[in-house]
Structure formats: structure tokens, C-alpha cells
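I would like you to sit down with the pair of lines that follows and say whether C-alpha cells and residues agree.
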Amino acid sequence: MTLIIFSSLAVVIGYLLGSISFSFLMGKWIKGIDIRNHGSGNAGATNTLRVLGVGPAIIVLLLDALKGTAAIWIGHWISGGLPLVEVLCGLSAIIGHNWPVFFGFRGGKGIATTIGVMATLAFVPAFFAGAVAILAIVLTRYVSLGSIIFTALLPFFIFIMERPVEMFWASIVIAIFALVRHRSNIVKLIAGKENKIGAKKAI
């Protein structure tokens, strides 16, 4: 019972960590804006790049990834390394990033936090999926396409590399999250109207 209570607390902490929107905070700090009202309207690293520039985008990317890593380690420490608790903490951090309680449930698309989560849970599968995604971004300049490819390949690599079943099902959920959060991007990709990396919109 005690383990269940503390594990549940770890999941809640993971959500609260994920709910810290570094993109929003960076926009307020640098330009006094709500970044969700500029560029693509997304509170994430890619829109930070578009609106605020390379430096802030890198910082946001790293901090968002660290949220996922921190959530996993909290779950590991509290549960003694139970994969299910670690996975739930990671998923809760992604949910927090996408739907943050501190910012009216208007967050990002969860990819940077997913990178942190999956690199901590299953580094090698995440590395291979990430390598393919980066190649896709380099060739097409569509970050959204790379993000979708990354999350779509995670279950495949986790399965063939025989990682714990909890990680496999978590990767399925993450892929669904990515599709839901990128549904407007998918429509634009099909129509040939998606923004390419490097394109900026005026504030």
C-alpha cells in the first residue's frame, strides 16, 4: 500500500514537472510575450526557434527533455526501479507538457519531453529512431515530419530490441499522443503548406 501511495505521488510530480512550460517562460522573459500567440501558436522548442531564435530554442529543448528524464528518475528512486512506475512517470511528464495545469492546459506537442523520457528508459531504441527522424528533418526541413517519424518508430525499435513490455506499450501511447498533437501539421504536410525549419513569422 505504501509503495502504491508513493508511486502515485511520483506520477503526480511527473505531471507537475511536465507542466512547467519553458517555452512560455522564455517568451515572457525575453520579449514579454505569450509565445502561444505567435508563430505556430505552440509552446515548444520549434516555435521558440521560430519566434525567439536559436539560443532560446536550444535551452527550451534541453529543459523540456530534462523534465522527462527527471520524472523517470523520480519514479525509479521512489519505486526502487519498477518499470511500470518509471513508465507512468514518464507518460505523466509528457501529458503535463502537452496539457499543463499551470498554463490553462495549453502546452506543446511533447516531443522534447518524449526524447528525455525515451532516452532515459530505452536509450538505444530512442537513438535509432532519433537518427532516422533527424535524417528526415535534414532532407525535408519539416520538424513535424521528423517528430512523427520518431514516435512512430519507437515501438518498432523497442519491440525488436526486446525491451520490457511496459516500455513498448508506453511507446504506443506516445505515438498516439504525437499523432493527436500533430494532426494539424499532418493536414498541412499533405497539403504542402507546412512550415519548414528556419522559416520565421513576425511578432
About this structure: Residues 54-79 form the longest helix (26 residues). Residues 2-191 form one domain. The mean pLDDT is 93. Residues 138 and 146 are 9 Å apart (CA to CA).
